[in-house]
């Protein structure tokens, strides 16, 4: 039904206009998908999305950004496909996207065990090598009989393929190589493996990472293939006269040696530096250098000539090669626009480039001193400065891209030229038959059965081989016949057929040795590229089934669910009978697994626990395949390895760790305590990293806790924090423990006074033992404090201090306080009672006590809120306007606490701008203020409060009164009129003159905008316009008469709006007339002192 609906819809869409297109797609949704489940994400390119109104369309919604999602339950549609049409409307066309929705039960959807698998394979191994870790991949859950696997990305060079083995419920695949890999070319492959059902409706994908393991297959390669050095004979002994350098593609460190030891020269093996160890007395020395890697067995470079010439003296040592190639020739290029030479094309066979460093050709020079350089590194060739093209890596036709070319650009530098030229080089490669064929028959070894009464020509087996070369010509050859001529091999088809009329003997094995040859891949006159010899065993009558693999191995996680599939095994019946599979354990582990007797799927029968010592971690099983109706049986070994899952968090040996008596003055980085945690898991799951939630301490991976800052027992004598042990599993698990560190106090703190300066007051008539003040000091260490005066003792002049309490009093004797103040230096010394041996290191601090002697009226009035006074008054406000009410207080009582207010006049001030009520403190204006006049924006005011003591005390409060602006000033032009002489041919758009007006008001009241009006002829306005903000007058159209009369208008933005106007005259002069020219284009900046006298010269400007 769904097919008929889709066909009908396609027919309707096919008759729509050509600007409407359509496409279709299958989408599978799990049955338990909840509202909000995203079905598809469209790429948003500005189009609009809509869902056509058909059955179940209200079950979905599409957002403006192209996200299609589910809005209600859809489980009732399991097994009943339906379609949904999404319309995408672009400006040029409309696209209808037909989505065929398949709702499947979640357990029936194809899926892989993991989203990511890792495999590994060594480089240089032959094609067909299994990638370890990827031998048993399968997607489960599908209901169709066949699952198709494909590598959909990451296999651009066809390095890998998959070997499928289909059964009723799933397919097992292994990843194999298609050709020898080269780690130095690519170390890691990332493949995307896709599994799809037979109709390609349901699919699943997983990522395969394949690491190519290194083999020592590359010798060190020197940077140069001949070295020349010139050395003066007076060069000092042990001087470095040159350096040999090489690289190894395997990443090994090169080791340098002279091929034959030399009495006057030596080479440092690790660096390649050549040292002079004796006096050079010949004109020329020729030596040979060998370089090898540090592997075992070693790889050696070819011998490298070293030529050293000498002379009596030379101011410098110069190193060069025959081609004069120096180090640091490679330049980092910045792509810029360059001239491009004609493309050069060359044709070579693959075999022409088989020798590394072979010179293939040289680029033509347009200038004898041109220098060449490859623009981007190329895998196959290298280019030297002279334009010589050499083989960098042996050419391989099968590894080239689709075009089968070596395509690169070179940069050419010419003497005196600032820019380099580019030239494209294309080398077309012809395939050479250099790859041998290989058999693809499975299973191995090759086995077959022949009926006893088989007639001549009966086919019993078909050989199948492949060859990567394009011109292969595969022939199948019978190498050795151990059957007495009873079989023949068709040279072209690979069919193995019977010969002779005699019946074949029951249970007799007939053996043939065969191979496949590529007749176009000739090695010698009578020898061709071929596969290794393969043994084909043909059994007369019948033979036991053959498993597709000689042994089966797989691994499963310990948390794999019971009754889940583990692996599939498959055997081939030569009698085409049904096969029944049985499973038994070798050793322990019986009953842990069972097998589906009809399809060979091994399932987990019991729960696993990797950490349970009673369960083996590797199960050795035997699978037996038996043909029905009393047929043969055969067995194969199956090894199932259980790998650890991170299901155990780290556990500490103790829940609470404590360290006592840790000195607070230990150096930073001192170890304090060690904790220890263990994890019952294994390998990475059991590796532990420790972390702590503390900035004072750190911890290493051994669990040792170190101090990270200076400890302070006075602030915190107990440090408590949590330490975490985190394993390296996925997901990571964590264990915690509490750590308490108890610090030991040291007498390392000085006493600290509560304030550095004390300022008590004492009446001048105070008597003996009058309390002056109390000084307070504390010690973080908790020591007792002893007070005194500097110099020792507890008495200083007319003052005494109590040693224990810090109370300062007047002495008990005669008192005469005849100074305004007395300064006392007091001390506080700890006694070290806090700590052991603390008394050995006493600490002393000092403070200053200033005793002020006051009369009886000793409190002056204060304005407590003076700092908050910020009154405003509008300019132009009437005299007598209230500004603010000030308030002062006096702590004295009675008559001495009453205050009166007055205005403090500034020096030379005439009159007062403000008046204050002496009782209430209400301040009012005494004039009308002009903000733009002499008053300015702020007016300073000082109000004085005087008490009624004898003598009276007073306090003052100074603050500023802000004069707020009103729009009382019109704009003012800088000229009384504007006259400008303009040439008749002045271009349209030219700025002719700039009008300038200012407004003394503030903010919008002072912001000026410009306009033009006509004073005589309204047509004059059409020739000019003015920029309202800058005042520039701009020509709008060509001038065609001698004079234009306009009126310039300047308006401010205040309310009400003020304006000013001036006359503007534009006089047109002959194009040959020259107006005055200023002697400078710009004057300034000009610095002017703020108190400059009126009429002083500021600067001088001139025009001529």
What attributes characterize this protein structure?
1104 residues, signal, 87 strands, extended, 5-stranded mixed β-sheet, mainly beta
Account of the 3D structure:
InterPro entries: Cadherin-domain_protein, Cadherin-like_dom, Cadherin-like_sf, Cadherin_CS. It is found in: Membrane. Residues 1-21 form the signal peptide. With 1104 residues, this protein is an all-beta fold. It is built from two helices and 87 strands. The protein has a five-stranded mixed β-sheet, with no helix packed on it. Strands 34, 37, 40, 41 and 42 form a five-stranded mixed β-sheet that branches. Strands 62, 63, 66, 70 and 71 form a five-stranded mixed β-sheet that branches. Strand 31 and strand 32 form a beta hairpin. It is extended, with a radius of gyration of 51 Å. The chain starts with a helix and ends in a 35-residue tail after the last strand. Residues 10-16 and 314-337 have low confidence and may be disordered.
**In angstroms, what separates the terminal alpha carbons?**
98 Å
- Based on CA inertia axes, which overall geometry fits? extended
Please state the CA-atom Rg, rounded to the nearest Å.
Answer: 51 Å
Number of helices: 2
* Widest sheet: strand ordering: 20-23-24-17-25
Mean of pLDDT: 85
Beta-strand level of the residues, as a percent range? 35-45%
Q: Point out poorly predicted stretches.
A: 10-16, 314-337
State the gist of this model.
The chain is mainly beta.
What's the topology here?
Elements: H1 2-14, E1 20-30, E2 38-41, E3 48-51, E4 60-62, E5 67-70, E6 82-89, E7 94-104, E8 111-112, E9 116-122, E10 137-140, E11 147-153, E12 160-166, E13 171-177, E14 188-197, E15 203-213, E16 221-222, E17 227-232, E18 240-243, E19 246-247, E20 255-258, E21 265-267, E22 273-276, E23 284-292, E24 304-311, E25 318-320, E26 344-349, E27 359-362, E28 371-374, E29 381-383, E30 388-391, E31 405-413, E32 421-430, E33 438-439, E34 446-450, E35 459-462, E36 465-466, E37 474-481, E38 487-489, E39 495-498, E40 509-524, E41 527-530, E42 534-540, E43 546-547, E44 551-557, E45 565-568, E46 571-572, E47 579-585, E48 593-595, E49 601-604, E50 618-627, E51 633-643, E52 651-652, E53 656-663, E54 671-674, E55 677-678, E56 688-692, E57 697-699, E58 704-707, E59 718-727, E60 734-744, E61 752-753, E62 757-758, E63 761-763, E64 771-774, E65 777-778, E66 785-789, E67 795-796, E68 799-801, E69 807-810, E70 821-830, E71 844-854, E72 872-874, E73 882-885, E74 899-903, E75 914-916, E76 922-925, E77 938-947, E78 954-964, E79 972-973, ...
Parallel strand pairs: 1-7, 9-15, 17-24, 26-32, 34-42, 44-51, 53-60, 62-71, 63-71, 72-78, 80-87
Antiparallel strand pairs: 2-5, 3-6, 4-5, 6-7, 8-10, 10-13, 11-14, 12-13, 14-15, 16-19, 17-25, 18-22, 20-23, 21-22, 23-24, 27-30, 28-31, 29-30, 31-32, 33-36, 35-39, 37-40, 38-39, 40-41, 40-42, 43-46, 45-49, 47-50, 48-49, 50-51, 52-55, 54-58, 56-59, 57-58, 59-60, 61-65, 64-69, 66-70, 67-68, 68-69, ...
Protein name: Neural-cadherin-like
Signal peptide: 1-21
Organism: Limulus polyphemus
